[in-house]
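Work through this protein:
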Amino acid sequence: MDENTNWPEFQKRTLDEQPRKMLKKALEFFGEFAGFAVDLGCGSGLDTIALVEHGWSVYAVDSTPDGFKNIMAKLPQDKQSKVTCVESSFEDIVIPEADLVYSSFSIPFCKPEAFDAFWGRIVDAIRPGGRFSGNLFGVKDEWAYMTDATFITKDRLDELFAGFEIEYFREQYSDGPSVLTPTKLWHLFEVAARKP
């Protein structure tokens, strides 16, 4: 994997996957509540679709719009209005106020020089009582050679979530498959956090 990753191919390979772990965690913490979510790096749309099926309205963002067609194809017509599809890079995205900002494996693909401003927009967008749920990559990840992606230390992670209530945290450092490669060394932070 490198800066020229084939994102359309990635989206094709995830068309029929199940909703991801950190989305399930977020829905678990919200219980019966269904509000407005931002899905950053929605890819093929599998998590956006799951959110809509749970009653949420979703602002689905991706720099590669191929997955938007999948979202609309899989949602019943009467639920399609619950999704706003936005083609944008993380460096340029305007993030609306939301009850949930969610991102599965995509936030690290913000360029390092733009990451702090991007993260600031994420924090500002989360309503009081709202949540962030998603994944960030650690500095020991196999892909850490990528100069156009952001990798962080645990201390940096603690800084990013200062002021949040951490509801779930797991640090993974192990070999495992990825969508585009048979195996890789993952250094991954899984976080679900509530904004007071």
Residues 36-194 form a domain with the Rossmann fold fold (CATH 3.40.50.150). The chain is about 30% helix and 30% strand. The two ends are 37 Å apart (CA to CA). The longest helix spans residues 112-125.
